[in-house]
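Re: that backbone. Tokens:
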């Protein structure tokens, strides 16, 4: 199993942050989105927030590949609809590549 940690900022607006969290409650997330996540080989995913910064932790199958996930998402109209909706709330990190949302984090410490 592989683990990836990613970061992204939300627009710093309390109403938009509340709405973003609303969409990510179990009862509000679209089933097609959770299905696409699992189909890509993501076994577990958690998102944490502090202020307007988000941290995502993904545990994946050993053969998980970001390029394959991106291609699957590009071909999935429901995922594209979701991503368009989420851009209302999100903003790229200052050091993100153009068009990049979530930025992969580097592990700098491990205990054990």
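Recovered sequence:
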């Amino acid at each position: 199993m592989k683990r990836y940690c990613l970061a992204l900022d939300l627009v710093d607006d309390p109403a938009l942050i509340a709405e973003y969290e609303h969409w990510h409650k179990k009862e509000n997330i679209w089933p097609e989105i959770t299905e696409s996540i699992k189909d890509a080989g993501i076994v577990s995913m958690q998102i944490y927030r502090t202020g307007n910064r988000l941290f995502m932790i993904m545990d994946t199958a050993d053969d998980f590949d970001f390029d394959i996930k991106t291609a699957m998402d590009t071909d999935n109209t429901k995922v594209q609809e979701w991503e368009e909706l989420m851009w209302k709330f999100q903003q790229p990190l200052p050091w993100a590549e153009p068009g990049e949302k979530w930025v992969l984090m580097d592990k700098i410490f491990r205990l054990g």
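Helices lie at 14-23, 31-39, 66-74, 77-86. The beta strands are 2-10, 42-50, 53-60, 90-91, 103-104.
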